Amino acid sequence: MRSPKQTSRNNESSSSSSSSSLWTSIPATGHGVAVILVGSVMATLSANQIPACRHRVVDVVATDNNNNATTVVPTRRVAATLFGRPAPHALLQTPPCPRWSAIVNNNNNNIPKSPVTFEAWNARVARNYEKSKRNTNNNSNSNNKKNLSSA
After folding, report:
1. Where does the record place the region Disordered (predicted)?
2. Per-residue model confidence (pLDDT) at position 149
3. pLDDT at 146
4. What is each CA distance from 93 to 19, 104, 117, in whole angstroms?
5. CB hemisphere CA count around 107 (13 angstroms)
6. Alpha carbons 23 and 2: distance in angstroms, whole number
7. Domain residue spans in the chain?
8. Model pLDDT, residue 88
9. Three-state secondary structure of the chain
10. What distance in Å separates the CA atoms of residue 72 and residue 58, rounded to the nearest whole number?
11. What are 23-77's pLDDT values in tens digits?
12. Chain-centre distance of CA 62, in angstroms?
């Protein structure tokens, strides 16, 4: 689920992000509202028509205008997590759906993506995660070295 662009940085209870660093608030919360966050397996199966969502949950911050005091307003939420983990040899491919097949074919010059096993897909995701983790750590370490050398 993608939310409308309601730009907010500090006062959201649930938010999602695209590839940019800007977070957007989920507009409706509370009793009777379900927010469904889809992971990358569903993105793969849906030809990226249902994209994976980066998300975070933060406390709502309220500011008292009289004395500029900031207080954290506690929020109640219920989370039910369902992880699907296919067998290692299961093929991840877009199911035969006319709408998605047309999109896949148009986006890839009429060459549909080859199915991939869950095991191969999982290995690729793990490699990419480790690579991004190393890059984040390297950037953090180089920033720390710069800060130490300028002190």
Report:
1. 1-23, 129-151
2. 56
3. 55
4. 24, 11, 9
5. 11
6. 11
7. 1-84, 86-151
8. 95
9. CCCCCCECCCCCCEEEECCCCCEEECCCCCCCCCCCCCCHHHHHHCCCCCCCCEEEECCEEEEECCCCEEEEECCCCCCCCCCCCCCCCCEECCCCCHHHHHHHHHHCCCCCCCCEEHHHHHHHHHHHHHHHHHHHHHHHHHHHHHHHHHC
10. 10
11. 777 777 777 878 777 888 888 888 777 888 877 777 666 666 666 666 666 666 6
12. 26
Res 110: pLDDT:
45
In one-letter notation, the amino acid at residue 96 is: P
Rounded-to-integer distance, Cα 140 and Cα 151, Å: 17
Q: Could you tell me the two tokens for 104?
A: 């896949």
Residue 126 predicted with pLDDT over 80: yes
Percent of the chain with pLDDT over 70: 54
Which residue is associated with the tokens 């008292």? 64
